Amino acid sequence: MFNERDNDSMNRVVMIDSVTKDKFFQEGESVIGEIVDIADNPYKVIGVYKSTIPEEWIQQGFAEGGILLPRALISMMFGN
Question: Is the distance from CB of 13 to CB of 43 less than 8 angstroms?
Fold first, then answer.
């Protein structure tokens, strides 16, 4: 989970969902601490959360996956 320091310091950290993990990492590979590139910027993976995307969408290839960033970082990147 993100903490107050991540938000206040606009740390470049990210949580990825299980679909994204399966898409970009091999089974059994530890992703915590790995660096991923999002919009040409590096982010450190600090957690993986269970995707809420319906399983049938995943199986049919409609699911892209999801990520979570600290609120302050999103505001800086995309405005309020």
Answer: yes
1-20 pLDDT, tens per residue?
Answer: 888 888 888 899 999 999 89
Strand 35-38 with 41-49, pairing:
antiparallel
Compute φ and ψ for 32, nearest 5 degrees. -65, 125
Residue found by looking up tokens 């399966």 in the block: 22
H helical segments located in 1-80? 4-8, 18-24, 55-59, 71-78
Strand partners, 67: 16
Is-contact 63 18, C-beta < 8 A? no
Q: Name the amino acid, one letter, at 28.
A: G
**For residues 70 and 37, is the Cβ–Cβ distance under 8 A?**
no
Among 56, 50, 43, CA closest to 20 = 50
Global pTM reads 0.81
